[in-house]
Amino acid sequence: MYTRVNIVDAQFGADGGFDSSGGCSPVSSRSGTSESDGSGSSSNNADEFCPDPYPSGSDPRVDRAISNVLTESSACVLGDIDRHQQRMLALLPAFSSPAGAGARADALSRWLAGFDVGWVLDMDPSCPSKGGESLPRREVGRRVRAWAQALNTMERVFRLRHRELTLKQVEALGELAAASAGAMLKLAGAVAALGSSPSKLLAVLDVYDPVLEAFPILGRMFSWGPSHPVLTAAADTLAALVDAARSCGRDLRAFVRSHYPWRMPLGGEVHPCVGFWMGYFRCMLRNHIALCFVLGGGDDDAGSRGGDAPPLAAPGGLGLVAELISCLEAVLEEKSAALAFPGLRQVFMLNNTFAILRRAVRSDLRMFLPPGWVRAREERMEGYIKSYMDASWAPVVSRLDDAGGGKKPSAVIRRRTSRLSAFYTALENACSAQRCWKVHNPVLRGILRKAVSVTVVPAYRRYLEDHPEVEAAVGRTAEELEEQLSNLFEG
Question: CA 392, CA 215: separation in Å to the nearest integer?
């Protein structure tokens, strides 16, 4: 009786895309609107701070544009490296043995400022208020991105030039590299010292990989032993980042339940938290290798994985994503109880389940979801449609139930006329309320309207055909009623 919901059929329109370019705080989206799933756009929507920079399709104009951008970008990077190498050569004398501490400090400050990260010198990881705790969330994200780019560029500058230098210059370069690396670790330590929050976990993952990759390269390049102060500090910082990430990971379920304001939308549309959290989960997977090792290697879940089993499917590893989506769905179900109008709760859950499903299947999240996950949500949506019909329209149609047997003809006519009036009243009440409800996706809206129409219109037409002695009200033909129902869910 009810139309099967196929997520593939409903995937068109604006795409709340995502990018893996970095960042750990929400910003505005390229796509802006979300006509297709109704989640809207918000400055707090994590799914909107990484729009897809490479549109799908085979338009040669798009390919040429991307190629031009990449070519210009590559030339710019090479130019930057050359400029930094020239600055490096000019600053190396300050790191030769006879140079004083003041000269070195000034040279290091100028060196870091050239990468726009001079502020790391003012950070004190042992004091969170100086390390970043007092910074707005977006500022932490901006600084992490600038820091990661600077560390990557520094490593390339050192690697590409140190073989061309004299032995004395290489020694000075090693001193500059050690001072730079030690200063850059301050940001990583400050991130680890932040208070537990969703954005902290993203920042930790963004910082973890660069430290893990860049510092061993510097150690090999300059022959630093395992006890070298920089490598020792890097190991301590990585341990602090792992502890911080695992602490945030343990708090994530509580964050899903409480981090976002739970004011319910009046029209049953998608709650803004869906866009925020589905985007957040995608941000987590941006650094999925770090996520795998950091969250999947703790003592909490070692036993459940059976020794050295890969954490991809483990509750503490990337399997955490599926668990967190289930947590989000459970919270939505709980909060939907506040929607008391018959059928509104089911429309709310239908909208939100569709938005979650669509964002999952159209992103890299789908690779980390168990088999049958999509079909289970489609069946759940079918159940919401059936429950919606039972709650909202079955009572309307029940007004047409004929119970006039055994009575005088005149009494039967009056009863049937009264029943028709009751049906009209119930119909008008339902339509009046549900015109204000919102189903953004046009395919989903069409499915819901059809479910209403095939339930109400045939029953009404059959009642009029079975009881010709009862006249339909003006403007109440079956066709006009069907037209009226086609205006539902417009918001």
Answer: 63
